[in-house]
Amino acid sequence: MRLFSVFILGLLLTGCLTEKPSVTNDPTQAPPRTELSQDSKIFLGNRLFSEKTCITCHAIDSKHKAPSVVEIMQVYKAHDADIVAFLKGHAKPIVDTTTSQVAIMQDNIDGFLKKITDEELDAIATYMMHVDELSKKQ
Ligand code: HEC
């Protein structure tokens, strides 16, 4: 009888041991945050550029209500300027400095752009920086 209980105890113990790995696979434990790859940022930025309505004023390479992305990037690359800083209201406009045009974009910076996270702004900026390469590939 005693031998039998030792046997049962042994079974229970090995049962506990074999269950251990499932503890480390606990779905409530969030995986470590990893930095997005450049391709993922471009992909996400492309989507956000439409979703966040930027595209309604900024076409990719033709001027509508606002300078095109290609035009903006020519100026930003030439000045080695920071798009995210501008979008956060930390840098002055350098593309179209006409007062009325600046006011339109400034309204966005003071308004809906405040709700866009730093990660999203970074993705949008990365997308804008690579927009010329994307159009060449097509
Ligand atoms: C309602 C129209 C409108 C929308 C929506 C809009 N923009 Fe603009 N944007 C403008 C106008 C007009 C200008 C030109 C004035 C200027 O350069 O600041 C401009 C300028 C810019 C510039 C150049 C700023 C500079 O240095 O002169 C960037 C970068 C920019 N927009 C990014 C964005 C992004 C990203 C979004 C979406 C999150 C967006 N815009 C949404 C109208 C818009």
UniProtKB/TrEMBL annotation:
Superkingdom classification of source: Bacteria
Species the sequence originates in: Xanthomarina gelatinilytica
Name of this chain's protein: Cytochrome c551/c552-like protein
InterPro entries from the UniProt entry: Cyt_c-like_dom, Cyt_c-like_dom_sf
Keywords assigned: Heme, Iron, Metal-binding
Cytochrome c domain mapped to chain residues: 40-132
Gene3D superfamilies assigned to the protein according to its UniProt record, in alphabetical order: Cytochrome c-like domain (1.10.760.10)
GO MF entries: electron transfer activity; heme binding; metal ion binding
Xref: Pfam families: Cytochrom_C
